[in-house]
Structure formats: structure tokens, C-alpha cells
Design brief:
CATH superfamily of the largest domain: Isopropylmalate Dehydrogenase
CATH architecture of the largest domain: 3-Layer(aba) Sandwich
Helix content: 40-55%
Number of helices: 13
Structural class: alpha/beta
Distance between the termini: 24 Å
Number of domains: 3
Radius of gyration: 21 Å
Number of strands: 12
Strand content: 15-25%
Order of helices and strands: EHEHHEHHEEEHEHEHEHEHEEHHH
Largest sheet: 10 strands, mixed
Bound molecules: 3-isopropylmalic acid, magnesium ion
CATH class of the largest domain: Alpha Beta
CATH topology of the largest domain: Isopropylmalate Dehydrogenase
Amino acid sequence: MPKYKIAWLPGDGVGHDVMEAARIVLDRIGLNAEYIHGDIGWEFWRTEGDPLPERTKELLRKTDCALFGAITSKPKDEAARELVPELQGEGYVYVSPIVRLRQEFDLHTNLRPCKAYPGNPLNYRDDVDLVIFRENTEGLYVGLEWHPVPEGLWSAISAAHEKAARFAGTPRDEMAISVRLMTKFGCERIIRAAFEYAANKGYPTVTVVEKPNVLRETGGLMVRTAREAAADYPGVELWETNIDAMCMWLIKNPQDYGVLVAENMFGDIISDEAAQLVGGLGFACSGNIGDEYAVFEPTHGSAPKYAGQYKVNPTAMLLATRMMLDWLGETDAAAALESAVAGVIADGKVRTYDMGGDSSTLDVAEAVAERL
Ligand code: IPM
Ligand code: MG
């Protein structure tokens, strides 16, 4: 009996390429696991009208955790045009399956470390070591959206807030609403996760990234909650920074920051910026972590134009694999994998195109495996 059951979700685009790389490394480590393939991604949207079929959710319920490659994600109208003819006009609405996984499985903590590995020619600076805690289930991603805006909703909003009067003359189909819903529970859960991590790993600061001067209620709730939680962690200083200023400071002085905590959308934005500081999305991994289940993925998308070419950098995927090992409690294997990845980067002989080399995705995986 294998010790672990791992849902294997390549998704689409370069997801397949990088998952193959992950498998080379896992086989080398000899993890005692069964990897069970799950259908997810664009293909299943087009042909079944559901990029996250029920059978795949069933698989997740039966496994310990999942490793996930990448998925194509498109705005709703564009997505609808790509459905097979039989499904056109049947009311199918595309929602990103990774966002659904995070919400439906309550994978509340999106952990995104961005560390500059020595010798990476793409490092913006060599002393960057950021860890983003992105709230993964609510905020602006909550999915409460309307277009056109229903009459009943508009009258409730008008009755509740005088600011609605300004839009009284706007036709309901010429306005759209997306709700940014945050709960005290959700804010506290992500903020405490960030502080716990900072305290355990020796980061001196947690920066809460918000915009409470404008988003007074949701931003205010997040910052107030951060101040309350900070009182329980005397060894970690709380910094409060507005999202716009954060984007600037990450370019000006990224080395000054450690753990960052943010609402879903703001966390999404700073993740890509932070990734670029350490070499780009090819180096950024992401853990979607709940109380009982977790899904590990590279932060990058599916890059369809490179699909099947084994061209993209698998480092992000390998670092996601490392996070999975850590989460499973396989901490020695996790540490070995990280140092093997760091070794290949520092050595500089096996590099994908983004790093100026001509090695393939699988060459990099083999080079990492050789060091294990
Ligand atoms: C990410 C991605 C996703 C997100 C997309 C693919 C829906 O950008 O994981 O950061 O917005 O969360
Ligand atoms: Mg993103």
C-alpha cells in the first residue's frame, strides 16, 4: 500500500510539460505514493461545459493532496465561444477551475514564497526573500457579480447607501457590479497564518497590504484584524502598506520585506510582481492550503503557445513539488529537493530559454534528479 494518494492534475497547455518534470524528480526521490490522474482544464470546459468535472472533485476527496500543472483561463464570453457546438447557448458560464477548487475545498491559504536563488541571472536583486500569504476564498474573487444589475439588488443598494443616487439614471445593463466580500473570520485566518509562519521561520515583519484609506470597510476590517492579531506575536512587527505603495516599494526596496499578507485580488497582483523579482513566473510556486487538503501548483499559467514543446522552466513546478513534500511531512525530501533545485540554478549549466539557455524542461528535471 502506498503511503500517499496524490491527485495528479496536469490541466492543459504547458501543465503537462512541467508535471512530467515533477514526476521525474518524485520518482528519483522514491516517494511512496500513488499518483492518480484527474481531468481538469480547458478541454473539459469545451467538451463538457465544466472544466472541473464532478469526477475530479470526487478524486480530490479520496486523495491526500493534489499536484496541479496549469490551466487556461479566459473571460466568460470568449470562453463561451469555444464550447463545442452542442453546448453553445445552453447557459454554461466559465469560472476558473483553480478559483473554484480554492473555494469549494476551502483552501484558504495561498502560500507564495519568492526567493532569489544565488546565481540566477534573472534575479532583480540577490537578497529578495518574500513570502506572500494571499487569502484564497473571499475578497474580490468571491464571485458575487452581476451584469445587468437586477432591479431588486439595485433598489436594495439605493435604499442602503446614498452614494447609489449618482447612478440612478444609468440603465441596469450598462452597469456591472462585483462585490468585495471579506469576513472577520477570513481575514483573521490568513493573518494568523502569516504571523505563525513569520514567527516560526524567523521573519521580523508581516506587512498587511491593503487600501483602507479608500476601501474603508473591507480594507479597514483587514487592517484592524491585523493589529489585533499582531498583539499575540510580540517578536514580529506589523507593517501596514497600501497596495499601490507596495507595488512601488517592491521595486524600490524589496529586500526590506519578509512576509506579506493580502486579500485575494491584492495578493494576486503582488504575487506576479514578487515573482518577477526572483526571475519571473518560472520560479514562483504556490500552495493552496486548507485544514485538511492542499493543492500545489506553479504560479504561472498554461502558456498555450509553448504547450508540448518542453521549453518552459519547470523550476516553479519543482518548487511546488517541494512545498507538497513539506506539507506531507516529508521534510528531509523537501529540503533535499530545494537544495538540488538551487544547485542546478547556481551551477548554470542546464538552463531553459528564459535563463538564456537551450535546455529543455525535462533536461532541467533530470539535472535536479541527478543531484538528489
Ligand atoms: C493565480 C492566477 C489565477 C488567479 C487565475 C489563473 C484565475 O492568476 O493563481 O495567481 O487569478 O488566482
Ligand atoms: Mg495570478
